[in-house]
Design brief:
The complex is a heterodimer of chains A (233) and B (79). With 233 residues, chain A is of the alpha/beta class. Helices cover 24% and strands 24% of the residues of chain A. Chain B has 79 residues and is of the alpha+beta class. Chain B is 35% helix and 27% strand. Chain B has a three-stranded antiparallel beta sheet, with helices on one face. Classes of the chains: A alpha/beta (233), B alpha+beta (79). Chains A and B meet through loops of A and helix 1 and helix 2 of B. Chain A: Its EC number is 6.3.5.3, 3.5.1.2. Chain A: GO terms for molecular function: ATP binding; glutaminase activity; phosphoribosylformylglycinamidine synthase activity.
Chain lengths: 233, 79
């Protein structure tokens, strides 16, 4: 799997992401600066990592979404290339209109930084095939704006088309207001686009991939991508 | 030429920041405040004629200043 990690000013999780990708795929990802106008030849997966691009000025991810490299990412996605956005990366993908909706300020206004449980809703996508449908995984979150919002039609479509892949839940998998950490519509933690090749999620799977991190539940996402691309190739 | 773009949240979009400000105003004992919605104001200087300026401001608001999923905007050329 040949991956490319986008680097925007103010991003701070790109090294964690690169480490996880290297660990699981066995290949060094390319680090791609935001001012680039193309992606490296043969890229299989583009990742927008977490952080605070442009200091979250204007709206989270808004300025990064308008940077030159995002035109290349849009073209890559429209050719069916796999794109993953984590945390600020999810915000950037929404602002780029690669994904619908927006991440608003957390309902209780606090920055949330701890492990959460999320339920994997289906396992038949490139982004979830490393898990079983209904499986609960423990992954960290670190965000102030993770409260997913969209108009009613969009939410209805996301649910109707099975495009919610990850949902905040209890350790045993129950979904409800008590476990919805940031007030997101339908407890949404991660969604895919209509075509199914772009995922945005608030939790950080890249931070739970090695024993030393205390948990390896995030590994399945990357392992699933590697398996998917291995099969496709 | 000076202009102002005002960006506000659409009706029905939850505004936790506005709610917190509303609570703070009430706790200050300022009477008569029913609700608060937070928005943004951009003061912009432009060169060129007014028609072009209006088109440029609309493009700026659509492409960057506002996220029209949740926000409305108003453009005023102040002269």
């Amino acid at each position: 799997m040949k991956s490319a990690v986008l680097v925007f000013p103010g991003i701070n999780r790109e090294r964690d992401m690169a480490r996880a990708l290297r660990l699981v795929s066995g290949r060094e990802p390319a680090m791609v600066w935001h001012a680039e106008t193309s992606l490296p030849e043969g890229t299989d997966l583009v990742v927008a990592p977490g952080g605070f691009s442009y200091g979250d000025y204007l709206r989270c991810g808004a300025i990064a979404a308008r940077s030159p490299v995002m035109n290349a990412v849009r073209a890559f996605a429209s050719d069916g290339g796999l794109v993953l956005g984590v945390c600020n990366g999810f915000q950037i993908l929404c602002e780029s209109e690669l994904l619908p909706g927006i991440l608003m300020r957390n309902a209780r206004l606090k920055f949330i930084c701890h492990d959460v449980h999320v339920r994997v809703e289906r396992s038949d996508t490139p982004f979830t095939r490393g898990y079983n449908a209904g499986q609960v995984i423990r992954v960290p979150v670190a965000h102030g704006e993770g409260n997913y919002a969209a108009d009613e039609d969009t939410i209805r479509r996301l649910e109707g088309e099975g495009r919610v892949l990850y949902r905040y839940c209890s350790p045993s998998g129950e979904v409800g207001d008590t476990h919805n950490i940031n007030g997101a519509a339908q407890s949404i933690a991660g969604i895919i686009n209509e075509r199914g090749n772009v995922l945005g999620m608030m939790p950080h799977p890249e931070n739970h991939v090695e024993d030393i991190m205390g948990c390896t539940d995030g590994r399945g996402l990357f392992a699933g991508l590697v398996a998917h691309l291995g099969r496709a190739a | 030429m000076k202009a102002r773009v005002t960006v506000t949240l659409k009706t029905g979009v939850l505004d936790p920041q506005g709610k917190a400000i509303e609570g703070a105003l009430k706790s200050l004992g300022i009477e008569g405040i029913a609700s608060v919605r937070q928005g943004k104001v951009f003061d912009i200087e432009l060169a060129g004629d007014k028609t072009k300026a209006e088109a440029a401001l609309k493009a700026a608001a659509d492409k960057l200043l506002a996220n029209t999923v949740i926000e409305n905007y108003r453009v005023e050329v102040l002269g």
